[in-house]
Write a structure and sequence with these properties.
Elements (H helix, E strand, L loop, with lengths): L24 H16 L3 H13 L7 H13 L3 H13 L7 H12 L4 H13 L7 H13 L3 H13 L7 H12 L4 H13 L7 H13 L3 H13 L7 H12 L4 H13 L7 H13 L3 H13 L7 H12 L4 H13 L7 H12 L5 H17 L2 H22 L1
């Protein structure tokens, strides 16, 4: 299953403030006045709540300056919620100048009092190196404290850290444990990742039915990778009955969000007429979208469509263009096809040495068994047509090309 794993990264510091139910009309006005009186009398909890209300515009006009004023008063009295919220305001520059070091200071004060939001946000700051030196071990420490209190985003990120071995030794069992905790609270990315672990048998026995269960929950919440992965499971009949219509449906949902793997797979469905009416032009459309985003499979597929004149007028120059793009990304069969274009002088000047060089590269680059047989037959036939000096020159040229490709990928 392509691109089934993702790195969960919390780039934006979250603003986790104390919630309060909205109140209608006069009741709201009277209650706000009462809250203000209590806040002016020094009630730290009410000061934190009033700060939240001004920050979010709940029952009062949104006013970050006023929010920062009341939040600071609560924080300076040692109120953990106020300290955490003031950290978020510094983190995002709301009502105060953005200052990551000040954000860290206030998060730490609240985190040391056990505030889960502050513990999570402090973990984010260490994970991202915002206001402090990047430190995954320290991030893990704070994520773990927040996750142990049931903080769902911390649980998901803790799972990702164990999954990727960041700040801790890689441990799929621990990753699955924390993904599950977050998934059971409805966190879509954690559901998708837990589904992926069941699919791949990482941290637990492989179980396609459990994979489908969690992947579906994430897909129905709009998680794009889960939608694509659910399409794969329907296409292959893994954990669900094989159903090309359902596969196309989920590929389309993910493709509509610009997810390249789904665009390629939807293109394949149109090419093969699986779950949809066969339509080479539609296949071309989806391949092109993915190819223009740099997907090597899509670039290769687009090259073959131009090579064969399927869905587009036959155009060897365009075929070479797309084969080359895929070949330069290491797509083995595209490399072999590009070599064939050089041999035939199709879309490029005829060049046996260049052609054989690309075929050498493709044949040594992990082709599947059926394609490897095709290329080996092709190589043997071409060797009969070339002189020993041409073959030697092609071998030298293949090394030059491979060195250049390796440099491009660095």
């Amino acid at each position: 299953m392509r691109q089934i794993k993702i790195l969960l990264i919390m780039v934006v510091v979250t603003l986790s403030l104390l919630a309060s139910a909205a109140m209608p009309g006069n009741a709201a006005a009277e209650t706000v006045d009462q809250l203000r009186q209590q806040a002016e009398q020094g009630d730290a909890k009410v000061q934190a709540l009033l700060g939240y209300m001004y920050s979010t515009g709940q029952d009062v006009p949104q006013d970050y300056q006023e929010a920062a004023k009341w939040t600071r008063k609560a924080a300076e009295q040692g109120n953990a919620r106020g300290q955490s919220n003031l950290g978020s305001m510094y983190g995002m520059g709301q009502g105060v100048p953005q200052d990551y070091q000040e954000a860290i200071r206030w998060y730490r004060l609240a985190a040391e009092q056990g505030d889960a939001d502050a513990q999570f946000n402090l973990g984010v700051m260490y994970n991202q190196g915002m206001g402090v030196s990047q430190d995954n071990r320290e991030a893990m420490k704070w994520y773990h404290l927040a996750a142990s209190q049931g903080f769902v985003q911390a649980q998901a990120l803790l799972g990702a850290m164990y999954d990727l071995g960041q700040g801790v030794p890689q441990d799929y069992h621990e990753a699955a444990k924390w993904y599950r905790k977050a998934a059971e609270q409805g966190e879509a990315k954690a559901q998708a990742l837990l589904g992926a672990m069941y699919y791949q048998g990482q941290g637990m026995p492989q179980d396609y039915q459990e994979a489908a269960k969690w992947t579906r929950q994430a897909a129905e919440r709009g998680e794009v990778k889960a939608q694509s992965n659910l399409g794969v499971m329907y296409e292959k009949g893994q954990g669900v009955p094989q159903d090309y219509h359902e596969a196309a449906k989920w590929y389309r949902k993910a493709a509509a969000q610009g997810y390249t793997a789904a665009e390629v797979n939807l293109g394949n469905m149109y090419y093969n007429g699986q779950g949809v009416s066969q339509d080479y032009k539609e296949a071309i459309r989806w391949y092109r979208l993915a190819a223009e985003q740099g997907d090597a499979d899509a670039q290769f597929n687009l090259g073959t469509m131009y090579d064969d004149g399927q869905g587009v007028p036959q155009d060897y120059h365009e075929a070479v263009k797309w084969y080359r793009k895929a070949a330069e990304q290491g797509h083995a069969f595209a490399q072999s096809c590009l070599g064939d274009m050089y041999f035939g002088g199709k879309g490029v000047s005829q060049d046996d040495v260049e052609g054989y060089a690309w075929i050498i590269i493709g044949s040594s680059n992990g082709l599947d068994e059926s394609r490897q047989k095709i290329v080996e037959v092709q190589k043997q036939a071409l060797q009969q047509m070339m002189t020993p000096s041409q073959i030697a020159a092609a071998q030298r040229r293949a090394k030059e090309i491979q060195a250049g490709l390796g440099h491009q990928r660095q």
